[in-house]
C-alpha cells in the first residue's frame, strides 16, 4: 500500500476540463492583434500547423506562453512539431539505445554515464584524463534529443552514418514512443526521480531559461500546475507509470532506474546498466578500476566544473550552466510548505499507489 507520509518510502487520465471554443477564439484574436509573445513562440510554424494547434486544449506555459495537450501529454508548440516529424520519419535499428526521462530527472547524468559505458573501449575512462569527449563536450551533444536536436523545427536528419549502437534521448512518454522503437533489439533506459525533487528542479530551471516575454512562474502557481499534471511531458504520474509498466512487461527491452538509487550506489547501478546494454564489465575491468573511473568522470561535481558546462549552449539557446544546480536528494524540504508536501504526497498515493513503484525522499 502507498503511504501518505513523505518521510517513508512512497509507492508509485485524468484530463483537465477546458472551454475549448473560448480558447480557440482567444488564440485567433491574439494572432490577429499581432501579440509579440504569440508571434515569438509560433512565428516559424506553418499555417496548417497553427490550425492544428488551435484544435488542442491549452494551458499557461512555464517557459513559453502555452502548453498544449497533445497525444495525452502537455508540451510546447515547437516540441509538437518535432515529435510529429520524429514519429513520421524515424526508423529504429537493431541495437539502438534510447534514454528516456521526464525533464529534470537526471537526464544529463544518464547521458554521460551511458555514453561512457558504451564507448569505454574507444575512450578509456581510466587513462583518458585529458582527451575524453566528456571533458570538452556536453552530454547533450554526445547523445542528442529526438525532439530538441535531431527533429527540431520539423527537420528530417540523415542518421544512416551513425555507428552502432546509435544512442538517442527523449522526454516523450512511452505511449508516444513505442511505435517508433518496435525493431527487435532496441533498448530503452528510463531514469526516474522522486516527484518532489523533480518539481523543485523543474521550477528553478524553467525560470532560469524562460523567454523574457513570459512572466516568471511563482512557486505556488508552478506547484498547482504540477499537481494538475500541467508541466512539460506531464502529467508526471502518467509518464512514470508508462515506462514502469513496460519495464515490468518487457524487462529485456526497458530498464527502469531511480535517480536516488544512483546517488546512493552508483557503481552497482553502472554494472546493471552495462549488463542491460549488452556490454557487462569484465572482472579485469573491475580490478582496473573502470567502474569507479566512469563514476568519477560522470559525477555531478566533475561535470559542473568543466568549462564546456559553464559557458556553452547545447540545448537550443539555453546555457549549459543551468543544467547543473545542486543534484541533491531531498532539496524539496527547503521549498515546499507542509500543506504542499501533504498535497503532493496524497497525489502520489492516489496516482501511483498499487503500482509497486516506490521512491526514497531522503
From TrEMBL:
InterPro entries assigned to the protein according to its UniProt record, in alphabetical order: P-loop_NTPase (IPR027417), Sulfotransferase_dom (IPR000863)
EC code: 2.8.2.-
Top-level lineage group: Eukaryota
Gene3D superfamilies: P-loop containing nucleotide triphosphate hydrolases
One GO MF term attached to the UniProt entry: sulfotransferase activity
Gene behind the chain: LOC108815988
Protein name: Sulfotransferase
Keywords: Transferase
Record family assignment: Belongs to the sulfotransferase 1 family.
